[in-house]
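Example 3.
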Amino acid sequence: MDRQDMLTTHPFDDDKLREECGIFGVSGASTASAMAALGLHALQHRGQEAAGITSWDGRAFHTHRAMGHVAGNFDNDEVIRALPGEVACGHVRYSTTGETSLRNVQPLYADLASGGFAVAHNGNISNAMKLRRELVRRGSIFQSTSDTEVIIHLVATSNYRTLLDRFIDALKQVEGAYSLICMTPEGMIACRDPLGIRPLVMGRLGDAVLFASETVAFDVVGAEFVRSVDPGELIVVPHGAGADEIRTHRPFGEVSARPCIFEHVYFSRPDSIVDGSSVYSVRKEIGAQLALENPVDADYVIPVPDSGVPAAIGYAQQSGIPFELGIIRSHYIGRTFIQPGDKVRHLGVKLKHNANRALIDGKRIVLIDDSIVRGTTSLKIVQMMREAGAKEVHMRIASPPTRHSCFYGVDTPERAKLLAHKLNIPGMRDFIQADSLAFLSIDGLYKALGEAKRADIRPQYCDACFTGDYPTSLTDQDEAEVRDQLELLSERVV
Amino acid sequence: MDRQDMLTTHPFDDDKLREECGIFGVSGASTASAMAALGLHALQHRGQEAAGITSWDGRAFHTHRAMGHVAGNFDNDEVIRALPGEVACGHVRYSTTGETSLRNVQPLYADLASGGFAVAHNGNISNAMKLRRELVRRGSIFQSTSDTEVIIHLVATSNYRTLLDRFIDALKQVEGAYSLICMTPEGMIACRDPLGIRPLVMGRLGDAVLFASETVAFDVVGAEFVRSVDPGELIVVPHGAGADEIRTHRPFGEVSARPCIFEHVYFSRPDSIVDGSSVYSVRKEIGAQLALENPVDADYVIPVPDSGVPAAIGYAQQSGIPFELGIIRSHYIGRTFIQPGDKVRHLGVKLKHNANRALIDGKRIVLIDDSIVRGTTSLKIVQMMREAGAKEVHMRIASPPTRHSCFYGVDTPERAKLLAHKLNIPGMRDFIQADSLAFLSIDGLYKALGEAKRADIRPQYCDACFTGDYPTSLTDQDEAEVRDQLELLSERVV
Amino acid sequence: MDRQDMLTTHPFDDDKLREECGIFGVSGASTASAMAALGLHALQHRGQEAAGITSWDGRAFHTHRAMGHVAGNFDNDEVIRALPGEVACGHVRYSTTGETSLRNVQPLYADLASGGFAVAHNGNISNAMKLRRELVRRGSIFQSTSDTEVIIHLVATSNYRTLLDRFIDALKQVEGAYSLICMTPEGMIACRDPLGIRPLVMGRLGDAVLFASETVAFDVVGAEFVRSVDPGELIVVPHGAGADEIRTHRPFGEVSARPCIFEHVYFSRPDSIVDGSSVYSVRKEIGAQLALENPVDADYVIPVPDSGVPAAIGYAQQSGIPFELGIIRSHYIGRTFIQPGDKVRHLGVKLKHNANRALIDGKRIVLIDDSIVRGTTSLKIVQMMREAGAKEVHMRIASPPTRHSCFYGVDTPERAKLLAHKLNIPGMRDFIQADSLAFLSIDGLYKALGEAKRADIRPQYCDACFTGDYPTSLTDQDEAEVRDQLELLSERVV
Amino acid sequence: MDRQDMLTTHPFDDDKLREECGIFGVSGASTASAMAALGLHALQHRGQEAAGITSWDGRAFHTHRAMGHVAGNFDNDEVIRALPGEVACGHVRYSTTGETSLRNVQPLYADLASGGFAVAHNGNISNAMKLRRELVRRGSIFQSTSDTEVIIHLVATSNYRTLLDRFIDALKQVEGAYSLICMTPEGMIACRDPLGIRPLVMGRLGDAVLFASETVAFDVVGAEFVRSVDPGELIVVPHGAGADEIRTHRPFGEVSARPCIFEHVYFSRPDSIVDGSSVYSVRKEIGAQLALENPVDADYVIPVPDSGVPAAIGYAQQSGIPFELGIIRSHYIGRTFIQPGDKVRHLGVKLKHNANRALIDGKRIVLIDDSIVRGTTSLKIVQMMREAGAKEVHMRIASPPTRHSCFYGVDTPERAKLLAHKLNIPGMRDFIQADSLAFLSIDGLYKALGEAKRADIRPQYCDACFTGDYPTSLTDQDEAEVRDQLELLSERVV
C-alpha cells in the first residue's frame, strides 16, 4: 500500500505553525527530576518529538533522553530514580534545525576542562552553520547536528578563564533567538537573548528556584510565578544557594525587547501568563477585536477546536451571536489509519474533528480559527460544515495573514507554501470555499495586547511572520547552501 | 517508591462511570477491516482497555486482538492486510465481567459444527455465572472468563437445527443487556436485547450495511445513519446480499423498551444521535433545566472539561451568566507520574486540569459537571478553584444523584463507594467543600429528553443508577459468591 | 529483497528430523516453577519454538506461555514469581500438528466441572482429527488446533464419574503416541502410551517427585533418576503426598513396548539415559558398528558437529584412524543474514560450520553424520570439504536410510522429500558428491542397542522411519483431506 | 529476590579472559555492509556486548550501532539497506575501557574539516587518559568514554595538513595496542601498532579488499586470505581503487614484533590462521607438549568444552589415553535462571556443562582446559566430575599460570583476583580439589609455536599475562586515579 494512502493526524495539526521547544529548570528541590518531568509534561504542547532531563547530584550528571512524549518516557519510577539530585533541567522539542535523532535531543552535555556542562535551548541560532564551520576547522568535533552545540564548543574553546566569562564570550558570538537553561558543577544558569524573542519565566517553590518557558509548568508543580526573565538577562543560581543568593547579569548593551507575538496567538497555553499578560484574556480580546473589525450576520459562533475556543468566546460575547460547539474534537488521535477505499472524504480531518450535524444543519455559522498556514485544513473544515448542512460559512481568523517564515525556532513551512504568501484574501477565501473570510489587522492584534498600535519604528514584538520585519540578521539563511553541505558530511545513524 | 506515591490520570476520569464497550460491524465493503478500524476509533471513548477486529474473506475468519487503543494497534497496513474480506466486526472494551487479558478481548470466536462463529457484545449477561456452571457440568470448556462466551456455548450445544434457531434459543436463556454483532459463514447478525438497554444503530454506505453503538462511527467512514435497531430486533445480513435483502426478526414477546438514560448524560459522544435525539441538544437542554431548577448568582459559568461543556453552555444561555473557560484541560495525559515530594497537592487532577488563574481570581463561579460518582475529583476541582482565588464556588450537576450500581455493562464502583449512597446532598456539599451543590431532578432529566416526566409504572428509560429500579432480574448478583468461585477455578495467564 | 535471498540457520539443522516436544513435571518442591524452567531449559533441544509452564499453588493454576526459548522467557524473577506453588509442569515444543501460535503452546488448560485441568503432551494423536469432528458435532468448542486438546474434551464429556476414570476413558479412545504430564486440583498424573513410543522418566529430589522426557532434566536440578515410566503405565502423585504415596495404574492390556529408536540415534542428548541405555555409549557403539560394516582407508575421521561426534569417536577408536576436528562449529547462530551478492556460496551452512582448512587440505577424510534427511546439508558439507582441499571425502551415516515419515510427533518432511525415498544409495552418493557413502544396517543399529538383531515379528523398537513398519493405525493420515478442512474452519489469529 | 540468587552463564565463561574486540573492513564490494555483518558474525567470539557497522556510499556515511549480538541486530534487510555503499567497516566489542553504552559502541565517527572520519579499534591505548585530559584542556569535547576517541581528536587538532599526515601524527602520540580500520571520504585505512600486539589480516574477494581480526571472517564471505598486516604497517585503500592500487606505509621505526600469544591459547577460533600458524594445529601441539611435560596414568582424556578440545585431542594422541566426551555442553545458554532453593549445587556451571555420568563413573580422568583465571569454574567442574563418580581427577592446563593483568585490550580481572597470583601450584590444586594439577611451561608454549624457546632478551610474543614483561609503558596505569576522576566528570546516560 502506498504511503499516500496513509492518513495521519497530530494533536496539533500539520497545518499549524509548530512551536519548537519548551525548557524547564529547577535548583534546590529534593526530587528535582520528578519536578522536571511534571514541568515538561505541562510544556508538552511546545514540542512532542522528543524529551530529555539532566540532573546533578553533587557529584555527577545524569541524563535520560527519549523520542516521544514526556508521559511514557519520564513517568516511571526507574527513570526518575536514575536521575538523582536537587538540580535538574529538561527539554521538549520539535526539530527545527538538525534532524530528530537521539543525539540531537536535549539537554546537550559536554565534559569541559571545568567539568560537565549541560544545556537546554529554546530558539534558533541564526549563524550556527557559519560558526560551526569555523569551529570544525580549528579541530572541534560535533556530536549532533543541533545549532545548540555551537554554544558549547564556543564555551570549550574560549580564551577566557572562568566559565561564566567563557559563556558570555560564547553568547556574544551567536545571533538569533535563545532562552537557555544550563547546568555546571557550580550552579544553574538561565538566560534570554537580548531581544527576548523566546519566553522564559522564573518561579519559586519554598527554597527552590525554577525556570520555564511558560507559567503553566509552575502551576503543575505548585510553584509560584515570580517574574519573567528579562531580555538580555543572565541569572546564576549557585548549587545549594538559597533563593536569595541568585545573581543577575546583563552582559549585552541596552536593546529594545521584541518578544514573539505568536506566543499570544497560538503557541502558549491559555492558562499561561506571557510577558505579563494572561494568554486567555488576550485571546478573548483578540476575538472581540475581530468581531469589531469584521462583523457578520450569523446564527452561531463556532470555534475550530481547541485553539480557536477563547477567541470564539470573545467574538460571541462582543457580537451577541451564541457560542456553540459545532465541531466535536476526538480525544483519541495521533496515528495513521488505512483509508478504506476512496469513499471516505477528508478522513484526516475527520479523525480529529466531527461536525455536530444536528446543530449545524440549515444554519449560518461563523468559524473562528487562530491562523491559516497552508490552508488545507481550513478547506476541509469548511467542506465538513457544508456537508453537515450549514447554509453559510464565514471564516474569521484571530491573527493577520501569515506571510513569512520564522527563523527563530518555530517550525514554519518554507515561504512558498504559506497560503497568505501565494494568494490575497479573496483568493484565500475562494481556496477554502468560505462564504466570507477576514483576518484581524496587525494593529488590532497590538490593541488586543494593550498597545495603542504597532510602533513601526521600534515595534514592541517580533511579528516577522506577519510583517517580514526580522529583528536580527540571518547569516545562515543568507548562505543557505551550507545546510545541505552539513547534511552530506554528517553520519546517518540508523 | 510506594505505589501510593504514584499518580495516575486517564482520559476519562477514574471518578466517572465508565462505559464498557463499543461494537461495530460492516458487511459488503471492499475494505471492511479498515472501515472497522475507523469505526472503532470513533467509539474509543466507550472502552480503552482493548480492541479487536474479526474479518471474513469468504473462506476463513481472521482476527486480531490487542490490549490498548485502536490507534497504535489497528492503524498499520500489515494488521489491516492480515484482516481481508468484505465483512468485519469489531469491539472496544473496558472489562466489566472477566479480567482484562487477551483471551477476554472480543470479538470472541468458536469453531462450531456449522462453521466459525464470531461475536462482539456490548452489555452484560446478568445470569452468566449460573449458565456457565451448567454448561461446564455438561462438558463445555470455556476459554475466557467473559460473560459473552456463555452465548456461544449455548449456541454450540442447542438442540435446534439451523444456526439462527440455535442462536435465538441461546438468547432466550440469557437475561440482562446485550447489543450483539455476530458473524457466521452465511452472514452477519445484529441484535439488541428486548429492553434495548444498550444502543445499536444501523447505517449504509453504498451497498454496504453497517452497525455500530453510536452514529459517530458512521460519520467517520462517511456512511449514512439509517435508523436505530429496535429493542428485541434481530437483523440478518446474508453475505453478498444487497442492502435490500437484509431480514429482520423479532423473536421476543412485546416488551416496553428501556434504553439506558446515562448514554444521554455522559457515555455517548455529543455529536451522536441516540435513540432519535441529538446528544448535544439534550445536554444543553439538561443545562437549561438545571439553571431553571437551581439558579445561582455568579460571575461565570465554568464547565468541568470536557464532559460538562454542553450543559454549561445551556446553563449560561438560560441564566445569562457568561460562559468562560476557567479550567484548561491538557491534551497530554494518560500516564502515571512520580510525585515530587509532598509539596505538590492534587497532582492527579492537575495533570489533566489547570485553573485559569487570571480569570478565576476574585470571582464567584458556577461549576457544571455531568455527575458525581465517588466525589474525589469534585473535591479536588473545588479546591483548585479556591486556590486560584475563586470567591464562591457553586457546583451544579447535570443529572440526579448516582445512588445505585449498574449491572448492565457499565463499570460502576460497588454501591458503598458512591458518594450519593453514603451522604445526603448537604453532606455531599460539605464533602466537596462547595458553597452550594445542586443536582438535576429525575423529572427534569426526563423533561430534557422531551418527556413530560418519568412514567413511574413503565418508565421510558433504564435509570436504575439513579432510582434502583432494575428492569431485569439479577440472578448472578443474587448468587454473588459464584464470581469468587470462578476466579479460583480459572487459570491465571501471566 | 526476496525471501529467497535470505539465509537462515538453526541450532538444529533444517535438514534434520526435529524432535517435537519435551515435557517436565515436579510435585512437592518449594519452588516448582523455577525447577520446571531449569528442566525445560535442559530439554530445549527437543523443541525451540515455544515454551510454557503451569503451576498449582493449592488454590489456583498459573500459566505462562511464550514463543521462543526457555531462556529469555522463563529466566526472570517476575515470571517465576507469578508461577507460585509446589507443583508445576512445563513443555517445550516444535509444531507438529497445529500451527505455532500462542494458543497452541502447552501446557493446555481447561476448567472442568471437577476443577482445573492442565496437560503437557509429547507425541501425536493419530486419530485426533476424527475425534475432533465428533466432539464439535456434539457441541464442544476447541480453543486450539492442537491434537492434544482432543484429550481434554474427551475427559470433559466422559460419562464416568471420577476424573481418573474419565481420563482413562479418554486415553482409550485415542491412538498414536503420547507421554503426558497432567495437573488437577488433586494431583499430578504422568502416563505413557501403551507402546511407550515417546520417552518419559521419573526422578526424585528429597520428597519431590519429578517426571521428564529425558534424564538430563534431572541432572540440571540435582535430582536423582529413579526409573523410566513403563509403556502403558499411569502414575498419580496426589498433592502434598510423600514420594511413597504415588500410585501406579496400568489401564491398558499387555502390549509389547516399541519405544522410538531415533531417540538413540539423534533426538536425545548424549548425556541422557534412555530406556536403560547411555545415549553416548550407544552412539559410540553405533560408530564402531559402522566402522566394522563400512571400513574405509583414510587419514582422518571427521564428525559433522555436534550430533556426529560420539559416533565419530566410536568409528575412530574401532578403525584406528585419528579423530580430528575438521569442521568448526560457530556458537553464534540462529538468525537470518542478508546474502551479499552471489559470490558467497553455501552461506547457510557456513554460518554454522567452517572447514578447518589447514587440517583438511590434501587429506582423505571420513565424515560421520547421524542421518540424511533431504541431503541438502550433506551436499554442502561435502562441497565445503572439497573447497578446503580434501583429496577424498567418504560419508558414513550412523543410522539406516530414512525412508518414511513419522506420525508420532516428529517433524519429518513429507515422504517425497526424503532423499532415501527418492534415490538408492549410489544415487544418494552422487547427489551429495561424496567419493563413497554408506549407512549403518538396521541390524547393526539393533546390535549397537544390545540386541542380537531386529525381531521382525515383534520388533523391540519403533523404527518406522527406517522400515515403514508403523505400530499403530493412522486414522487421520488415511483421511488426510480433513486437515485442510480444519484449516479452513479455524480463525486465523494475527 | 536478591541478585545473589540469580545465576548467570555466558557462552564464554565469566572465568575466562575475554577478548575485547573484533574488527572488519571491506572496500569495493557491491554490498559491503552485508559482507561486514557476516564478517562480524564470524568474529562474534571476540566481543558479544555490542556491534556496529559504518558504510560509505560515495556521498555520506551511514552507521548502525546496537547492544547485543550481530545476529539479531544486523541480520535484517532494513538495517542492511540503510547501510548502502561499497565500503564498510564494523566492530564487535567487549567493554575494556569505558562503560558499555551505545555512545561507546564503535565504529566511532566524527565530522572533521576534511570530512567524515570513522574508526574501528581493537586494542587499548595505554596513555589515553593522559592524552584526553590535555585535549579537553585545549577545548576538545569528547562524546564517549572510549580510549579510541582520543585518536580522533588527535587527528582533528593536528597541525599537519593532509589527513594521512594528521593520522600518523596522532598514532605517534599514542602508546599501547591497536589494530585500526578507518574510513574517510577518500579511502579506507588499516593499520597495526608497531609491536603488532593485536592481530589484523588482509583478504581479497574479486576486486574487493578486506581486513579483519581473524581469517575466519574471510571464510564466511568466501574471500581469500592474502597475508597478515605487518606490525607497524599502515595500508591505504583509496575508494574505487583496484586491489592493486593499495598503498602501504611504515611510519614507525623498526621494532621487533610481539604479537599476543594468548590468541593462540584461547582467543582466536581454531579454524583461523594467526600470524602464519593454524590455531588448531598449535593447540593440538600444545596438548602434545603438555602430555610430554606432565604425563599421568588415567582411563580417559576429557576436554572442558569447547575451548579445551583441540589440546585434549593432542594430549590423547600423544599419550595414547582415549579421548572421550565426559562433559556435555548445552547449546542453549546465555541467560540467568532463578535458583530453585539451595538444593541445586553448581547451577551456573550445570546450565552450560553436564557430566556424562555413565561414562565417568568409576574412572580416572585427565581434564584438559586452556587456562585458569579465577579458578571458580575449575573447582565446579572438578566437583561435578566427582559427583558423577570419577575415581581420580587430574587437571592439565594448556598454558602457563596466568599471573598478570593485560592492559592491551583484554578484559582481565584485577591482578589480585587471579588464582595464579594468589597461590602456588599446590595451593591451586587444593583450591580446585583436583588430585593433581599441572600447567604447560612457558618454553613448552613457545615450542608448540615452533620456537626453540622463549627469547628472554627480545621475546617473540607478548606474554605479559604469564611473565609480567609488558612491551610498552603503561602511563595511565601509573596514574590510575585518573580513571575515577573521568567517571565523576562524565554524564551518566540512562
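DSSP finds 18 helices and 26 strands in chain A. The CA atoms of residues 83 and 165 of chain A lie 29 Å apart.
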